[in-house]
What we know:
It holds the Pfam family YcgL. By secondary structure, the protein is of the alpha+beta class. It has a single domain (5-77), classed as YcgL domain (NE1680-like fold). 27% of the residues lie in helices and 26% in strands. The chain has three helices and four strands. The protein has a four-stranded antiparallel beta sheet with strand order 3-1-2-4. The radius of gyration is 17 Å and the shape is globular.
Amino acid sequence: MSADKLICEIYKSSRKDELYLYVDKRQGLAEVPEQLLEHFGTPLPVTTMLLTAGKRLARAEASEVMAQIAEKGFYLQMPPAKEPYLLDLYRTPTQSRY
Length: 98
């Protein structure tokens, strides 16, 4: 496969919502460090896709994903940052009022 295309396998974490691992389908999880897999939990297959440099992804640049897979053997997509106002909902004490 040429450097401008990559068949990518995407896995989601069994432990953390919105944590995804992208790998080259030909390599599978062989290049992913064991310590990362321990933190990631059981990799649950999500989809297989053809990545090209111009492809649009929701939270990453396809060219960056491809570059990291070529360099490290994987790309880890972290969950999006929580909005501060959403965190305030958990900090505010609540009282039941009847």
